[in-house]
Amino acid sequence: MNDQEDKIRVNSIVQVTDESHYWFPALVVVSELKGFGIQSYTHVIGNEGPAGQAYIRLKKGQYEWCGHAVVSTNEYVEEGGEG
């Protein structure tokens, strides 16, 4: 594991850095750590206001750690999981 991977946990904020990825250069919140990388989400806004969350799977090497969310809507954390 490298220093970046050591910092990443549930509710970390990462940026999509893979220019070929559909969500480049979005900032997303980590919802789960996976063997391949992470599952994350971002809030989506529609014409009428909030439209929900888009879940995004990212492979190792497609993202960089940026920080940690202060407020989260991550159900896993709200139900007592690690975060």
What would a concise description of this structure say?
The chain has 83 residues and is mainly β. Helix content is 11%, strand content 47%.
Features:
single chain, disordered C terminus, mainly beta, 83 residues, 2 helices, five-stranded antiparallel sheet
**CATH architecture label:** Roll
Number of strands: 5
- Walk across the major sheet and give the strand order: 4-3-2-1-5
Mean pLDDT: 86
User: In angstroms, what separates the terminal alpha carbons?
Assistant: 19 Å
Q: Can you characterise this structure?
A:
The chain has 2 helices and 5 strands, in the order H-E-E-E-E-E-H. The protein has helices spanning 3-7, 75-78; strands spanning 12-16, 27-33, 37-46, 49-59, 63-68. Mean pLDDT is 86; it is low at 76-83. The chain has one domain (3-78): SH3 type barrels, CATH 2.30.30. The radius of gyration is 13 Å and the shape is globular. By secondary structure, the chain is mainly beta. The two termini are 19 Å apart. A hairpin with a 3-residue loop joins strand 2 and strand 3. It has a 5-stranded antiparallel β-sheet.
Helix/strand layout:
Elements: H1 3-7, E1 12-16, E2 27-33, E3 37-46, E4 49-59, E5 63-68, H2 75-78
Antiparallel strand pairs: 1-2, 1-5, 2-3, 3-4
